[in-house]
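User: Protein folding is very new to me. Would you mind checking the protein record under this note? It all follows right here:
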Amino acid sequence: MTLIDRAPNNASAWNYLRGLFESISPSRQFEEYDHEVLKLLRVQDHAYAVAHPEEDEAGRTPPHALEWLLDSAAQQLPHTNKDTQRKKIQLLLQRLRHADPARNKYWSYVEQQLL
């Protein structure tokens, strides 16, 4: 995470971390690393960030960190309070639309698949 912290918008570093995480311990949940990923966000309160979209303008919030948190929330969906997780997923998707507007259609597709 120290290296990702130096360049949090570098997709290659996030893909490498994801690959390591999934191949070394496929049974591990992304949630186990959420606390480290949250440290990379300027605003950790998703509801606040959605209410203040300027916080997630392109370049200010690493979209790959939000994507990690989204994948983590999706992993937890079958095992936790579905309403709470769905709300969290919706907030993360709203943040991703601000932080990564180039993939707006992709985030709509993800939303359809998850919710």
Summary: Residues 3-114 form one domain. The chain has a mean pLDDT of 90. The chain is about 65% helix and 0% strand. The radius of gyration is 14 Å.
